[in-house]
Amino acid sequence: MTNPHRTTVRVATVTAAVVLGGFTLGCGLVQNAVDTANTLGEFSDRLGRSAELTYTATYQTDDATVTFVQQPPNSAVLSANSRLISTPTAMIMCDRSECQQAPNTAAVAGPADANLVSAVGGAGFLTPELALGLVAAAAIVPGTDVSTSEREIAGQDSLCADVDGIEDPEAGAQPGDMKSFSVCVTETGLLSSFSGETHSGDRTRIELVSYSDKVDPAAFAPPKGAKVVDVTDLAAQAIGN
Question: PROSITE patterns, alphabetically (predicted)?
Fold first, then answer.
């Protein structure tokens, strides 16, 4: 799981670097970058706290209904016919009654995890940990604009941020990178909404529709009667299929 303290330190360090470069960037740009980093740093802190929560959250995407279940250190993404289970020792992906199991060697979520999550939840779904990565990345891009608001989503009071103008000043706009996004997070750290658009025009959206602080332990195991096959690399197997 991502260490929230490490993420906060990273944002603070970049903020300091921007300030030190003020004579080159100009005061207005520096202040905007600092404000952006500070604002998104608060969202990073909130999302980081979600790693400690025990809960069941159901989200609506453009294509499906997806449930995220967490009881640290275990988590699971559940859709109509598939599930992705993460425990300290194993990653398990199931499609109906067939499952593949591989050792869990990742210390933090990375691109492979995002691909696995998309394979189960659909291209529009992301976990709080993946959302945290996007927020932290946007916080260090100069010129990013952020506005905040408050909403109630599925009965949960949420702080929201609309982020625009995300573009790496050196690499430029990359087709698969986020151009803009909106993220809402509850005070406890629950991801309540996320929508975004890439520079190539692809859109993604999820919104919380129900929440409970209870979990069903069965979510962290393959379905009853499922065939489980051990593999070395779950991501490689998923891509191969």
Answer: PROKAR_LIPOPROTEIN
